[in-house]
Structure formats: C-alpha cells, structure tokens
Design goal:
The complex is a heterodimer of chains A (223) and B (177).
Chain A: H1 3-25, E1 30-40, H2 44-48, E2 54-64, E3 68-75, H3 76-86, H4 97-123, E4 127-129, E5 133-138, H5 139-153, E6 156-166, E7 169-179, H6 181-197, H7 217-221
Antiparallel strand pairs in A: 1-6, 2-3, 2-4, 2-5, 3-7, 6-7
Chain B: E1 22-25, E2 31-34, E3 38-44, E4 48-54, E5 59-65, H1 83-98, E6 104-110, H2 124-138, E7 142-148, E8 154-159, E9 165-168, E10 174-176
Parallel strand pairs in B: 1-3, 6-7
Antiparallel strand pairs in B: 2-5, 3-8, 4-5, 4-6, 8-9, 9-10
Classes of the chains: A alpha+beta (223), B alpha+beta (177).
C-alpha cells in the first residue's frame, strides 16, 4: 500500500473531523496526522514501548461492501485532555467521568467517521461504522487482541499518529487500521490508478520498519 | 543479552515481586530463557504466556505466543509465535541448560477475549489456551496452574528461580500461580 496516499487520506479525514469538532465546540480545533507507520504486526508493542501504560481504546467496526476494524488508542491522561477540550471543564480533574467517557466516544465517532469518509471516497467502497466499544486496559493487552487477528490477514499494520490542538492544549492518539484483504486490494488498486494518473510522483513517505529482533536459541543461551 | 531498562513516559504497573531481581521483558512472538536469577515480564490479552520451569536447575523460560498453530500462516519464520512450536522450543533450551537431569513444568496465563464482536467466531484467546495445553501434553510437560480467559489484560511476572508467576490486572487485582 502506498503510505503517502494513506497519509493523505488520514489528513483529509482529520481535517473533516477538525471542522466538525470546531463547529460543535464553537472553537478552532485542529487535528493533524504528521506521521504514519507501517511495520511488522508483531513488532508494534515493542515499537511504541508503552507496554503496561493505562490506555483508553475505542474499537469501531466498519461494515458494508467490505470490512475494516479501526482502533483508536489514547493514554488515559491524553484522553482526559481531549475530554477537557470537548467539555466546558477548565482542567482534566474537573471532567465528570461519565461525561468524559461520552465525550471520548463522540470524538471517536467523529474522527473515525471522517476518516472512513475519506477512505470510502477514495476507494468507492461503501462502509458504515458501528458504535464504538470503549475499553480501558494496558496498551499491550489491548492491541494484542487486534494484532493476533491481524497477523492472520497481513504481515504489516498501518498506524496513524494523530495530534489534536485546541488553543494551548494538545493531545495525541494512535489510530490503527485493520482492513480486510478486499479493502486492502481496493486501496492498492486505487493507489496504482492514482499514481498512474499523476505526472509527478510524491517523495517517498516516512516508513519506519524497525529491524527484526527474532530471538533464536543461541541468543537465549547467552543470558 | 542486555536487560531491557526502557524508560516509559507514562505510569507503569509494578509487580510486587522481589524488588532487586532483574526484570527482562519478553515481547510478542518472542521467547526468553535464563539460568540467571531474573524475572521475565510480559503483557497479554488474547495471547498466552507460557512460563516453563525446571525445578532441579532453577532455570526458566517464557514464551509469548499469538496463535495456536504454525500452519495458520504459511510464510512465517517466527517459531515462538505459535503454541505448537514454542512449547517444544522452550523445553529444548531448558533441557540443554539442565544437562540431563531436569523436572519441567509449566504455568500459563492469558487467552482473554477483551473486545466483543472482534472475533467471536474465531475466539483466538480460547483456541490459544487449548493449543498450549495440547502442546504441553504432547511434549510431556506437566501443567501446574493456569489463569486464563476472562475479558481483561494481564501483566505477567515470572520468577525463574522460584517458578512463581505473578499476574496483575489494571484494576489492581493480583493472582499468584
């Protein structure tokens, strides 16, 4: 999959989401996707190095002409910052927990909906989101469920690193995309057509592929 | 192998084990074995952590498996990713360390299903647990204890000297196997 195109789609989706959020909050909100990572599925926990970090996860299924799972991940303190941005609270401590959870789910609906809109427009594949499932647990344990399923379908996983800004406040989150094989093919096909139609090709995207650190028996015995 | 002392920018749940013991993290689809007094750490959701111990030589190893069966993906060269290949691999290293006289046993944890609708038909967590148990039986390794299933993540700390496995969830609940 061409990462540059995915990064563009990510930023288009983020832009639409920011517009929606700005309207809701009556304040300028910006959402950027400065970076996209594509790496071997089983390397993701090591790469992000968050392990036991308490994490808020929102899982949305996209269904319709194809399938895609979307996972939004935020450290709980980043989630609190976003909840503060979304409510009238002055600081994370003042956010009512139920209100905060609802605010995060709403943000997820807007962001995923906008992202999915960009993907659907690009691929012409119609997808509809289900309401998100909201889970709080450790980072590795959460992504483990998805990476296991993903490893049956693909050796690689794509992750969008996303930044929210409202006034002086910033918060970050990760969006992981798990498209079905059919949707992957649609993305690759459309990318090829799009690149074929463009006279100039964009610079190579930033791709981070950490080197394999497969442990073999001889490494083990050195311990 | 260098111990992993990686700084984390956010709060980390600390195990209540012997505080001076060196902690070594075992990543997904990875396996580590030691004859030094260390504590192996890993975090599992639907994956299963296999903690294998030799009570005679006081060596131990932890394998973090993702899938039941190596035939599920054709092009893979990661033996510690699968229950059926990781169990004999762990046993093999411990046999070498033990130099003949060994008494192997295992404790397992993980295999949760944290997201409803994610893979109800596949139920990878439960299948991982079954596959690990089968692999242990086939390889003649006694299963001493297990903490599996449920809907929450687990932080696992395996003390290779005592063979004790400490399991913590984010809610603070602790189990000792």
């Amino acid at each position: 999959m061409d990462l540059q195109i995915l990064l563009e789609l990510g930023n288009i989706g983020a832009g639409h989401a920011a517009t929606s959020l700005s309207e809701i909050l009556q304040q300028p909100v910006s959402i950027d996707v400065p970076k996209i990572d594509s790496l071997p599925t089983h390397m993701i926990p090591k790469f992000y190095n968050k392990h036991d970090c308490p994490t808020t996860a929102l899982y949305t299924q996209l269904r319709g002409e194809s399938r895609c799972d979307i996972l939004l991940l935020l450290e709980v303190n980043e989630a609190a910052k976003i909840a503060t941005m979304m409510t009238t609270a002055a600081s994370p401590e003042e956010v009512d927990p139920a209100m905060g959870a609802s605010a995060i789910e709403e943000m997820s609906n807007i962001l995923v909906g906008s992202f999915l809109g960009a993907v659907s427009d690009f691929t012409s594949v119609k997808l509809v989101p289900t309401p998100p499932q909201h889970v709080v647990d450790s980072f590795d344990a959460i992504i483990d469920n998805f990476l296991v399923k993903q490893s049956l379908v693909s050796d690689e996983t794509v992750v969008f690193e996303t930044q929210f800004k409202r006034g002086e406040g910033t918060a970050s989150c990760l969006l992981m995309m798990f498209p079905s094989k059919e949707l992957q093919h649609a993305l690759i096909e459309k990318s090829r057509q799009w690149i074929g139609n463009e006279s100039t090709k964009a610079d190579k995207p930033e791709t981070i592929c950490p080197s394999e650190s497969t442990v073999n028996i001889s490494n083990c015995t050195k311990l | 192998m260098q111990p992993e002392l990686l700084a984390s920018p956010c709060p980390v749940v600390q195990a209540q084990a012997v505080p001076t013991m060196e902690e070594i993290r075992v990543e997904m689809a990875d396996m580590k074995v030691s004859r030094r007094p260390v504590e192996f750490i890993t975090s599992v959701g639907s994956c299963v952590a296999i903690c294998m111990h030799d009570s005679i030589s006081k060596c131990g190893g932890l394998a973090h498996i993702m899938l039941p069966n190596s035939s599920m993906t054709i092009h893979d060269s990661l033996p510690y990713k699968y229950a059926d290949t990781a169990v004999p691999a762990l046993a093999e290293v411990l046999r070498k360390f033990g130099e003949g006289k060994i008494q192997l046993s295992a404790k397992i944890t993980g295999g949760a299903n944290m997201f409803r609708n994610l893979d109800n038909s596949l139920n990878i967590g439960a299948r991982n647990v079954e596959a690990v148990k089968e692999a242990l039986t086939v390889n003649g390794i006694r299963l001493l204890a297990e903490d599996v299933g449920g809907a929450h993540g687990r932080r696992v700390a395996f003390n290779v000297v005592t063979g004790i496995v400490l399991i913590q969830s984010l809610s603070g609940e602790t189990k000792r196997l």
